[in-house]
Amino acid sequence: MSRLFGIVRNSLLRKSMFVEASSELKSFHGLATKANLSAALPGLNEVTFPATYSKTRPDGNFGVRIFAPYTVFKGKAALAAEMKLPRFHKLESGDYRVERAGAVMVTMWPAIGERKYNWDKRLLFALSVTEVGSLISLGSKESCEFFHDPSMKSNNAGQIRKTLSIKAHDDGSGYFISLGVVNNLLKTNDRLSVPLTTAEFAVLRSACTFALPHLLGWNLLSNQPPSSQSSAKAAPAIPILEWDR
Predict the structure, then answer these.
(1) Strand pairing class (160-168; 144-148)
(2) Distances in Å between the alpha carbon of 209 and those of 20, 50, 163?
(3) Distances in Å between the alpha carbon of 213 and those of 41, 171, 198, 205, 235?
(4) Residue 165 near residue 189, CB atoms below 8 Å
(5) Is 60 left (phi over 0), alpha (psi -120 to 50) or beta?
(6) Fewer Cβ close by (within 10 Å): the C or N end of the chain?
(7) pTM of the model
């Protein structure tokens, strides 16, 4: 009798678990169908986050963000490159256009010991689309240099100056990337350099090549929604904060 009771109890338990799982699945399906932003504009939620991929929760709020920088650690400093996606503007028609193209953010921070680095001393440089093109097209014995000034063509020009240079090694074994920031307001002059091997620079070049159409927003052109779905709200953009440092 006790054995029969046990079999009946296990059967009821499995049935209860099945009903509960089915209920969870239906609930999840119902929530998923309410994710209007993801359904209406597939991929648009990706263009407003600093990560290479992001998604929205079913309630429309922004949840998961994945950060995927390419990072190289060397003896005196570390270097990271990360894609910053473009900002979109919603038109009166309900369509979207690129308000500002994305960038590849290059970050360097100094070493303070063996396998220890000071993130608080990081330096930032946002490579524009054209500058990314210069990096991609760089030859094995070529060099390039970029200058940024947030107050260019104003009375405050020259107060903060940034320089990023990429120089090929004489023996063709790689590149030397240097980033300098002169801040006359804080009276600071910081400079960091990181050597990259041919293989490391090849990864950086390949990553930038992949990123380029995403920086322009062209990756979304082949996945445009029907006009009846163009009323989805634009996701709030996170700014490219190069000038934090």
Answers:
(1) antiparallel
(2) 47, 17, 22
(3) 17, 33, 24, 14, 20
(4) no
(5) left
(6) N
(7) 0.66
